[in-house]
Amino acid sequence: MSYPIVTVVAMTTRQLQLGADGEELAARWYVNAGYRIVDRNWRCRNGEVDLILERPGELIFCEVKTRSSQRYGHPVEAVTPLKARKVRQLAAVWMAHHPGGGRTVRFDVAGVIGGEVIVAQSAF
């Protein structure tokens, strides 16, 4: 009997800290811009949404990408169509568990590099 080969990519402590720091900077950017944080690192069995925010009449789901350099492009460019679809699906699950209509929904990507936050609003 043969078993499929599974590749596991382990993140280093440094990578995990870089991501956590980037999410914190993005969260501060939103708070300073007048948004309220509704949820952070919300998880379900299908995945995770980094930041869920709101301001009057609007609910924002944000994917945060942090990089230490632009060697592989800007972090905002790292959100693939597959990832965007996954975030949309997760948003639907979140909203099903947190009813409260009457708001528009927006999907942002926050790219963090060198301590600078660039937010692509309505990115997908």
Overall description:
With 124 residues, this protein is an alpha+beta fold. The protein has a single domain (13-120), classed as Trna Endonuclease, Chain: A, domain 1, CATH 3.40.1350. The protein has two helices and five strands. A five-stranded mixed β-sheet has the order 1-2-3-4-5, with helices on both faces. The longest helix is centred in the first third of the chain and has 20 residues, at 13-32. It starts with 12 loop residues before the first helix and ends with a strand. The model has no long low-confidence stretch (mean pLDDT 92).
Uncertain spans, ≥5 residues at pLDDT below 50?
none
Number of domains: 1
Number of helices: 2
The CATH C-level class name: Alpha Beta
Keywords, please?
35% strand; 2 helices; 124 residues; 5 strands; Trna Endonuclease, Chain: A, domain 1
Short description:
With 124 residues, the chain is α+β, with helices and mostly antiparallel strands.
Give the topology, please.
Layout: H1 13-32, E1 36-44, E2 47-55, E3 58-67, H2 81-97, E4 104-113, E5 116-120
Parallel strand pairs: 3-4
Antiparallel strand pairs: 1-2, 2-3, 4-5
